[in-house]
Write a structure and sequence with these properties.
- By secondary structure, the protein is an all-alpha fold.
- It is built from 5 helices and no strands.
- The N and C termini lie far apart (49 Å).
Length: 176
């Protein structure tokens, strides 16, 4: 049975088959970019705001990748890796173990973006398991998004004067 196609359809690929993950990827990257914009609106630091704007643009550049080709370059991926490493070096000690996702509103938004980065990676693995080609750099970029937003959350809490609260897992007592 052919589904109804509304003349007001918000996006031409919304009726893609359920096992076709390309539209899901595109919607997730659109959501990710929109949430990055929200975090940017709640951040006063101009350097972070500029960095977030660049990341938003890069997320929109990966959006059509599964339908077309990857246009985010290795240099751009390396830039995101260096940004993540810079934040880790400066703020990583604040989370020597698991921490609760709490604190300032901006840090909490950053944690949500961290999780969305992982959801993006998971979707890419599912797409690859279906036999589709997924560029390794796209996996790297999506994983780096998650890392970046984790360390940014630590920075945003530090700037707001909020201490991280360690989380002791009952299931993984020695986990980091």
């Amino acid at each position: 049975m052919q589904p109804y196609r509304s003349p007001y359809e918000a996006y031409p690929f919304l009726c893609d088959a359920g096992d076709d993950l390309r539209c899901d990827f595109e919607l997730l990257t659109d959501d990710l970019a929109s949430r990055i914009g929200l975090l940017r609106a709640k951040t006063a630091d101009e350097a972070i705001r500029a960095e977030l704007l660049r990341i938003t643009e890069l997320v929109y550049h990966i959006n059509p990748t599964l339908r077309t080709m990857l246009t985010v370059t290795q240099a751009e991926t390396d830039w995101l890796r260096r940004a993540s490493e810079r934040l880790e070096e400066a703020y990583g000690a604040r989370a020597s173990r698991f921490v609760l996702t709490q604190g300032s509103e901006a840090a909490c938004l950053s944690h949500l973006l961290r999780v969305e980065g992982k959801v993006l990676v998971r979707l890419l693995y599912r797409h690859a398991e279906q036999g589709h080609e997924v560029p390794e750099r796209l996996f790297d970029f999506a994983n780096l998004l998650s890392s970046y937003f984790f360390y940014l959350a630590l920075k945003l809490n530090a700037v707001a004067g909020v201490d991280e609260i360690p989380f002791e897992s009952r299931n993984y007592p020695n986990a980091r």
